[in-house]
Amino acid sequence: MVTPTGYILCATPRTGSTFLCSLLASTGVLGRPESYFREPDEVTWAASFGLPTVGRRVQDYQSFVQAVRCAATTENGVFGARVMWGTVERIVQGLDAPAHQSDLATLQAVFGPLVFVHLQREDSLRQAVSWARAEQTGYWQEGDVVQRSPEPDVGQLVGLAQSIREHNTAWRTWFADNGIEPLDVTYEGLVGHPHRTLTSIADLLGIVPPLDWRPGTPPRKQADRVNEEWHAPLRSAENREHGEVW
C-alpha cells in the first residue's frame, strides 16, 4: 500500500470543521487545511498567492491548484484541505481531467496519495438549526459580527435539514464510486475528545504529533435558548414529513 501524503476533510456546514482544521494545523505536521477551493473565497486565495484573476475566477486553475498544494503542505510533506460537498466536482472540472479518469485518480495526480476524513454531526436537526442561524446572522465563528437578529423560519430549517441528508448521502456515494473507505469522525466526538479525533487522523498518515502538542480549547458553544426554540418546530415538521421519531 502506498503511504498517503495528504488528506481531504470532507464535511458539511456546522460540523466543527473549522475547529478540526485549526487543531490539525496547530500540530505543525498535519498540513494546513483550509477551504481553499470554496468558490466565494477563490479570488481571495488567488490574490494571496499572487495569481491573476478574471472576474470571480482564477485565470489559470492549474497554477492555482499548485499554489494551494504548496500553501496547504507542512514542512514534512503532508497536505491537508477542507472540502464541502459540491466542491470536489468543481476541482475535478477545473483540472480538466480525461473523461475516463476517476475523480480520485485526478485528485491524486495533483496532490499525491490521499486519505479522506468524513466529518458528520450525529444530530443533523441541531446542525440545521445552527446552519440556519449562521446564515441569517452572518455569525459563523468567533470574531464574526452579528449582522441581524435571527428569526425562526421553519421552511428554511426543513430545507437545510434536507440538504444535510442529501450532502451526506452524496459524500457516501462518491466514496463508494471511487473505492474510498473514509475515516468517519463526528462533531460530537471531536468536541468531546479532540485529542482522540486528531490522533485517529494522524494514525492514517503514519504521523506522530509532537510530544508537547496539546489540543486547543474547543470554540465557545454558540447554541442557546434560541436554538432550542427553533429545534422543537423543526423536529415536529420532520416527524410529520418522515414519520420518524427524532
Note the main attributes of this structure.
246 residues; alpha/beta; Rossmann fold; four-stranded parallel β-sheet; two-stranded antiparallel sheet; 10 helices; 49% helix; globular; Stf0
What can you tell me about this protein's structure?
- This protein is of the alpha/beta class and 246 residues long.
- It has a domain at 6-36 and 72-123 and 167-219: P-loop containing nucleotide triphosphate hydrolases (Rossmann fold, 3-Layer(aba) Sandwich), CATH 3.40.50.300.
- Helices cover 49% and strands 11% of the residues.
- It contains 10 helices and 6 strands, in the order βααββαβααβααβααα.
- The chain has helices at residues 17-26, 42-48, 61-71, 87-95, 103-111, 124-137, 154-177, 187-192, 194-205, 225-242, and strands spanning 6-11, 53-54, 57-58, 79-84, 114-120, 183-186.
- The strands form 2 sheets. It has a 4-stranded parallel β-sheet.
- A hairpin with a 2-residue loop joins strand 2 and strand 3 (57-58).
- The protein is globular, with a radius of gyration of 19 Å.
- The model has no long low-confidence stretch (mean pLDDT 89).
